[in-house]
Amino acid sequence: MTDHPRHPKKHRARVLLSSVFGPYAQDDSYGSRRINPMELYHNQVTRYQGAFSLRMFHRSFGLMLIQSNIDAPCTLLDFPSLDRFIEELRKNRYDVVGISGIIPNIGKVVKMCALVRAHLPNAAIVIGGHVTNKENIHRLVDADHIVKGEGVAWFRRYLGRDPRAPVRHPMTYSGFGSRVMGMTLKDKPGDTAAILIPSVGCPVGCNFCSTSALFGGKGHFIDFYKTGDALFEIMCGIEERLKVNAFFIIDENFLLHRKRALRLLELMQINGKSWSLYLFSSARVLQSYTMEQLIGLGVSWIWMGLEGKQSQYAKLKKVDPHALVRRLQSHGIRVLGSSILGLEDHRPEEMPRIIEEAVSYGTDFHQFMLYTPNAGTPLYAQHKAAGSLLDESEFSPADAHGQYRFNYRHPHIPAGMEEQFLQQAFERDLAVNGPSIVRLVRTQLTGWLKYRRHPDRRIRRRFQQEAKSLGTTYAGAIWAIRRRYDQDSPMAGKMDALLKDLYNAFGLKARLCAPVAGRFLTITMGREERRLANGWTYEPKTHYEKTPAAMAMESTNVQTLKPIASKTANNTCKARAA
């Protein structure tokens, strides 16, 4: 591409990559919202489960992927405060500043661009991420380049390198700062899955999908690792470096690439790999695999769309999703179901039935989101053509995150009512199915009991790895949660049965550990509930990382300050009171 922009310093340009600044779980003029924290699960899945809610943060994997694949001296600043971002600009001389964000954070992106212009007037500003789907973004932000889509190839061209060179995978864990029942879990090697990014985009191309739209829409995707052999090699390297045996696969529909998946299975069998895979998949694709293949691949956790029987989407066509969910769980595969509220034909009088249908799946986790036309998607274009989008003077982009209100006039649901339906869905799921941690333990125990004596040592070993805490920590968690449900006989009965099964499976160890750990967790839960009642929120720590080229430049240039930390800032995950 002869018209692609090139930086005059090429690979010698000093690059800063940054996510938008925090704090995030608060209401402010930059676009942060208290109900839209920087937490995937507590934001969209377990948000009404109180002290039982799963809390954790995920790194800006796109920025990490770019940093891993450019030769230029590059610094990554992930989850900075506004002051920390300003400090980085003031104390260092960068030639390129890349900023990534989502559309609700457009106010932060605008502010950060203005700060770069003020402190580094000669630096080129590059904007990437979902925010680039926003209409007229060129007029909203003072940036030199707006990069929509895959950023690795773009940056390589920009810095004078080969965009077709093999992609180097970042070595990082899928989450950090995990917390549940008032306990912050230690990020120990082997306890957290590594991230794995085989491809970006989705060929299925649902009309509401921002990710599909960002990478070219329906029928388009970009494979970083096209074969099972290439993927296996990357996974072996990650396993050795991070000491992990589980991978969270960031791929919109990993199993859709059947040839690659089955070759990976073959290599896992040949080399005796007992890996656990956490992945996204459509129901229809899942059903095309045998259970033997799924178990052999190590599929342990699946995020699956459950849009409803009457939806226009083909992912559930010719599939009995209730039977599929039950079948997966009966083999120890945990399921996170995802349901959309406010589809075109949804009406207020039908919402109790729609919510009840979603809850009836009994998935281990359940995500509820509003049907939201995000900029760049076919659904957005459809509403724009119909004149049903709300003007930004009526509805701020910061509030269009799928957990609050519609950013358009729904044909049947009056404005404001959708927020009630979201709350009802989360609360009904909790009331009927109980806390997600209880469901997760039940499914894991079911898998352990089914496969603990499997003739294939590789499969047997995986279930042993996944079950290592069932008879100790998890037994204690169920013991503690059971006491929170003394007044709920049906739910208490379910937990009594689960505890009995744990005792039968793990014997004296579980019987001794459950009350000891349970009493401790009862105390930590009580503290957590008091914190939440007082307005406590959870914020991610700042990560600060430099490539070898950046560190080498610092060691030879006395005018450049040393990094604040060689890997990650020393501050712990911060709790902030409202």
In DSSP terms (H or I, runs of 4 or more residues), the helix count works out at 20
SS content category: alpha/beta
Considering DSSP H and I runs of 4 or more, what fraction of the residues is helical?
40-55%
Determine the mean pLDDT: 92
CATH superfamily (homologous) name of the largest domain: tm_1862 like domain
Architecture overview:
- By secondary structure, this protein is an alpha/beta fold.
- The chain folds into three domains: 10-48 and 59-168, Response regulator (Rossmann fold), CATH 3.40.50.2300; 188-448, pyruvate-formate lyase- activating enzyme, CATH 3.80.30; 449-531, no CATH class.
- It contains 20 helices and 19 strands.
- The protein has helices at 40-44, 61-67, 82-91, 106-119, 137-140, 151-158, 210-214, 228-242, 258-271, 283-287, 291-297, 321-330, 351-359, 378-386, 417-433, 436-451, 457-466, 470-484, 489-533, 548-556; strands at residues 15-19, 55-57, 74-78, 96-100, 124-128, 145-146, 176-180, 183-184, 194-196, 199-201, 221-223, 246-249, 276-280, 299-305, 334-341, 365-370, 536-539, 543-546, 574-577.
- Strands 6-5-4-1-3-18 form a six-stranded mixed sheet, sandwiched between helices.
- The relative contact order is 0.12.
- The model is unreliable at 558-578 (pLDDT under 50).
